[in-house]
Each structure stands twice: as structure tokens, then as C-alpha cells.
Amino acid sequence: MSGRGNLLSLFRKQAHTSIISSSSDDPDSGLDVDHSGASGESFRLGKNIETDLITTLQNLNISVGRGRAQLLHTLKNDNPTLTKKVPFECQDSKNSKDSLSENSKLPRFKPNTSRNDLYYPNVVHGSRELCYLTGLRDEVRTDYKLMREIASFTRVSPNERQVALNKFHENVSKSPAAQNILNSWGLSLNKKYNNLKGRQMETEHIYFSKMTVSAGKNAEFSKYAVSNEMLEVIHLNKWIIINLRNDTRAATNLLDNMKQCCKPLGMKFSKPTMISLDHDRIDAYIQALRGNLTMDTQIVVCICHNNREDRYSAIKKICSSELPIPSQVIIAKTLLNESKNRSVVQKIVLQMNCKIGGSLWTVKIPLKNVMVCGIDSYHDPSNRGNSVAALVASLNSSYTHWYSKAVVQTKSEEILNGLTASFETALKTYQKRNGNLPENVIIYRDGIGDGQLNTCFKYEIPQFEMVCGDRIKISFIVVQKRINTRIFLGRENRLENPLPGTIVDKYITRLRMYDFFLVSQLVRQGTVTPTHFVVLREDADYGPDIIQKLSYKLCFLYYNWAGTVRIPACCMHLPPFECTKEQKCTSVKIHNTDDEHKRNITKTNDE
């Protein structure tokens, strides 16, 4: 709490009387009184302001150094009759005496002259100051209707952004004060935009089990994802459905729609074990899971009556840590909407196939004996405990099977220091699957800002170098999402968002860095934000073209969306994002074994 701000607030009505400052030569002396007014004349504190100042200093139980005690001592010597509890409003000298006599019986406060002690105020006299929290609360973010209305203001199109920038330039140009500031720094604003040349990637082809389709210029293929046989299908032979007795209709709708949806997707399923619960209690779900899950269970589906975070966390904790079985949590009302049932169940079936070891689609990546890794860390704002760092690593040449593991770090630590063992285990798992170690490892590191690039280069990369030695070459790429750069596509007299696959690696890149910007997804509302890739190390000498094409191709392999995502899929499969819903779990370990029917290889979020 600022002592200067409290004292200055006393003189807003009579600011001409005196000036409060911290102009003492001793930096620890606290607050002093500057008796020199603006006109150079000498002023003393008026009686009313003197009274209010003592009242505030005595009631604010905050030590601001020796200056507070000195100021109190000076004021009391000038007017020893002043006592505590004087109304804050400025009074004339006639009424102040009556007010003082009414409060003379109140206990006096002995000022604390310690420099380091900090206390909370007991009583605060003066005008109130209101603090407003910025940002959106979690309750607001879950209100989809409200977020849709907010998006109409926050998602600004390229043309609207251009109009706003032109208006800003006009306001600055017409303001003499702004021009003086710019001229003093030798700066000027140019109304013209920087024109630069980018490159457009070729249209990608999506490979299903029996068909290959083109993603098109918009890089979306959702209609093909639900009508073609999946790349790798795992049939459901032994699985469990847990639901409330009141939600039996929702479970029936799920099974009826699965009969229609599974056939075109190439999946077959047997009748599940149905478990009905009488009470919607967390312990009822926990007992049902512990009493029925076995190592032969492929997946358990929990149909919950409503969206409760504590119930969801309990289910995921049991199925991720205690009994590592893939799980799918569904809210009952999503299965009761007859008009959307089919599309909802189609997505649920796709997710269930991923979680039990199957794959949906892939793209052609002509790299041999190369392992791709993704690394990120997560800091839970609601839990100021340890951070979670995670690593995922590809296990096959189609980049559809992934090994993943998470470790716990110290509080809010972004630089990783405990993933060496996880990376070494990932190499052993790759060797067990393929019979040999990879020749090259390409690591995508998410969550690193510009100020941490040097630390990452000196601290994180040597950890992986110690594990790889001379036998494996390392390529380390930092992925930056939170950037201010915006790229527009100029057509005639209007601006548009660039199409997916747009690459910019000149003009706006760093002078001494190997970096590029990639627009990987289609944005129909607002302005697209490109992703910034910084290559900190490349031992294999792939060159910019291969790194850029690989980064774009990996954006197609996130199975929660039949299209491209903003960052490579290996940075989206990370377990820390599941820890946001499992705040009670101190560690999440998803260690994939060779039996793909018992462990989930590709992790996706629930509906």
C-alpha cells in the first residue's frame, strides 16, 4: 500500500496549501513535508488538513519508515491539542473544536517507527478507491452465449482493423502534443503498410483406411472424417457404461446411434456392461469404477447428469492414476437432443477409437527414422502449487501413436529440468517398437517467450544432448502462440485473412534468428494470428523448406478437429492440459505399453 498515495488524497480539496513528497536525501526516511508551494512562498499545513493528516496516519497502522513518526511528531508539537478520530471532511476552525472534544475519549495509537514492519489498516479515513479485476472469469468463459456476444466485439476483421489503425494515425497526426513527443525521440508514424511476399503451401491430402481425400484450400475435411473408414480401427469387445438410473434414456440413445454411426467408420462393438446408479454421488461413481474395471476393460463411458467439476476430476483421477483405463465422460443432455444426436455420437465414437489405440487419419510425411516430440508446461492459476511439465514422442512413421509422460516441477517454473528421464524412456519405447533408435529427433517446445530463448538454448537443449550423445541428431524448435504480429492478404481494395499454409520467412523475421511465421488454420471471424517458429538448433540440416512443411503437416494430426489447428499436434496431446481438470492429481503418468487395447496412445479431450 502506497503511503504517498494516501497522503496525497488528503490534499485534493486544498492542494495549494502544501505538497507531500519523498524528497529527503535519506532514501529510508519515508515521507516528508515540502513547505515550499508552487509559487515559491512558504506555507504551513492548515489546521483542518493538519487534523485530517494526523487522523489518517494514526488510523492507518502501516509503517512507512522514520518519516511517518517524524511527521507526526512535528504536527503534534505545533498543535498538541489534536486528538484522534476527526471527521475527514474539511471543517472551519470553529467546528473543529467541538468535533475534537467528542472524540477525545478514544484510545490513542502509538505510532510504529519500524522500517520493515507492515500491518493491515484497522480504520481507513478518506475517499474510497475501487479496484476492478481484468479478464474473464471461468464462469463467464463457460457461458457460450455470452462468449458469442463478446466475440462480436473482440474479433475484429482485417478491414475493421485497418480502419482503426487509420483513425489512430489521424488522431496522432492532428495532436501537437503527440507530435512533440514523437519529434523529441526522432520518430514518425507512417500511414503506409509494409508490403511483403509470402509463400503458399501445397494442398494436403488426408489418408483414411481405404480412401484419400484433399483437404482443400480451407484445410477442412469434417464431412470425410465421419463417412470414411478410420485409418486404424479397434473394435469394442469389452467396455462399460455407467449412468444414473434416471439417465437410462441417454444411454439407450447412445447405443442406438452407435449402431448407425459405427458401420461407415468401420468399427464393430459388442453389448457393453451396463451399470445403473441410484444416487448422483461421487462415491457412487468411484465404487462402480473400482468394482467393475479390470485390465481387460477397453474403455469406460460415464454418462453424468450434469457438468460438475468435482465429479469429473474424481472419475479422471481413478481412470488415469489408480486404474489406468481409457475413459469417456458424457453429459446426459447432449444425448437427449434428437436433432444433434447423430453428429454428437459420431464425434464420441472417433474419440473412443483414439483412446483405445486406434487412429483416424494421417498425412504423408516422407521422413524416415525420425521421432517428433512436443514439450510444454502448465501452471494452474487456481492452485498455486507445483507446475506440471510434459513430453510426448511419436512412436511410428505415420505419427499417429504417441508416448506421453508428465512430471512435477517447482512452483511456476517454465524452464524444464526434469524431462531427461522421460525423454530417455521415450527413446527406449521407440526402440522397442521399431527395433532401432531414431536417427533424428525433432523437438517442438511450446510456451517459451522471447526473454527465455537464451535460457532455453543454454539450459534445456544440453539436457537432451546428454541423452542423445553423438548417435542421434537434435532439432529444437520453439513454438510461440502469443504474439502481436498480424498478416493480411491484400486483394484489390480490401484486406482478408491469409489461407492456411501461408509462410512468411522474410522481411518481418528476426535479424539473427532462424525463424518463420505460419498461418495454419482458417479463420472466418476476426483476424488470424500466425504462429511464430524459432529454430534454436538443427543438427540434421533439413533446411527451412522441410521444417516449414513438417510444421504445417503436423497441424493436421489433432484428432479433436477434422482440420488444422494453430500449433503442431504434438504440442496439443500433452497431459498438462488434462491436469487442468484434475487439480487434485499431483502427477499424471500415461505410460503406453505395447498392448494398445489397455492403454490410450493418443489422448484427446472429452465432449
Ranges where pLDDT stays below 50 over 5 or more residues in a row are: 1-47, 59-68, 80-126, 576-607
> What would you report as the Rg, rounded to the nearest angstrom?
32 Å
Q: How far apart are the termini?
A: 46 Å
Give the proportion of residues in helices.
Answer: 25-40%
Tell me briefly what this model is.
With 607 residues, the protein is an alpha/beta fold. The chain folds into four domains: 3-102, no CATH class; 138-184, no CATH class; 233-355, 3-Layer(aba) Sandwich (Rossmann fold); 370-579, 2-Layer Sandwich (Nucleotidyltransferase, domain 5), CATH 3.30.420.
Structural description of this entry:
By secondary structure, the chain is of the alpha/beta class. The chain folds into 4 domains: 3-102, no CATH class; 138-184, no CATH class; 233-355, Rossmann fold; 370-579, Nucleotidyltransferase, domain 5 (2-Layer Sandwich). The protein has 17 helices and 19 strands. It has helices at residues 3-9, 47-59, 66-78, 93-102, 138-141, 144-154, 158-173, 176-184, 222-225, 248-265, 282-292, 309-322, 341-355, 420-434, 453-468, 544-554, 576-579, and strands at residues 19-21, 32-34, 199-200, 205-207, 212-214, 239-244, 273-277, 299-304, 327-331, 370-378, 386-394, 402-411, 440-446, 473-480, 489-491, 494-496, 502-504, 514-519, 531-538. A 9-stranded mixed β-sheet has the order 3-17-18-19-14-13-10-11-12. Strands 7-6-8-9 form a 4-stranded parallel β-sheet, sandwiched between helices. Strands 1-2 form a two-stranded antiparallel sheet. β8 (299-304), α12 (309-322) and β9 (327-331) form a beta-alpha-beta unit. α11 (282-292) packs parallel to α12 (309-322). The chain is globular. Mean pLDDT is 77; it is low at 1-47, 59-68, 80-126 and 576-607.
